[in-house]
Write a structure and sequence with these properties.
- The protein has one domain: Winged helix-like DNA-binding domain superfamily/Winged helix DNA-binding domain (Arc Repressor Mutant, subunit A, Orthogonal Bundle), CATH 1.10.10.10.
- It is globular and about 40 Å long.
- The chain has a two-stranded antiparallel sheet with strand order 1-2.
- It is mostly helical and 79 residues long.
- The chain has three helices and two strands, in the order ββααα.
- Helix content is 41%, strand content 5%.
Length: 79
Amino acid sequence: MSDWRERIASDPAVLGGKPVIRGTRAPVELMLGKLAAELTIEQILTECPFLTREDILAALTYAADALGSEAVVVGGASS
């Protein structure tokens, strides 16, 4: 997998600055949601033929890097 920075872009003029697959309006969040819903990469590519396998892997790598660079709090609010 090449560097995700080659495939992921964030521009305030596109989807409010959410990270997207470069050259598209396909947000990284959408790719992650589809994978979490148990769609395969091949199914996503069928639904979104303008994407490549490398785009989807870049979205995963971006998410891993983003989560690796911040503290994640798990749990709900106390009553």
